[in-house]
Amino acid sequence: MTFLTDLTQAFRENASADNAGPMEAYMKHHFQFYGIKAPLRKQITKQIWSLHKTEVKNNAREIGLTLLQQQQREFHYAAMEILEKELRGKFVKTDIELIEKTLTTDSWWDTVDFLAKYLLGNYLTQFPEETDTVISRFSDSDNMWLNRSAILFQLGYKSKTDAALLFALCEKHSGSGEFFIQKAIGWALREYAKTDPKAVIKFVSETTLKPLSNREALKNL
Question: Is residue 104 situated within a structural domain?
């Protein structure tokens, strides 16, 4: 796989131990980093990607999964960027298996939030008939990151948001003690408030939410 070989070489050549330490600390030492900051990482990925455009286009799913298996977090970011661009509008129904794999591999907010919106959200825009089945399964899962993804997948839907579904998911998980679930509820509601603030205010006033969720939901209202 020449793309992966060239990307690996480029990442290694641009590694910075001075940057890696703080980046790893910011991510609570869950992941290893080469220490390549986002602007340079994206530039490197774009350059190598353009050199292997056909390979990446024809093997996006395989390349994405291979990148996710690498240790350094920069590879994981490259994976989600490639999958988002190459699969946009071109999903097949079985891609939900791939999406679930990305959401549950080395999960943390820095990848899950992007994947929930741009992979899961776009997939369900293309296949809306799958929404009930997929979101019910993710919401019922013991995996907290799948729960968070179910709450967040409509970010960016704006007027196309299924408000009833959003509110039902927020209420379902309203008692969660997980910081990332409480934060997701607040974030999802705050975003929808840009479209229908009255509906969000009404929901919050009638629903017992954790203080964090409540504060985040009403932050801009």
Answer: no
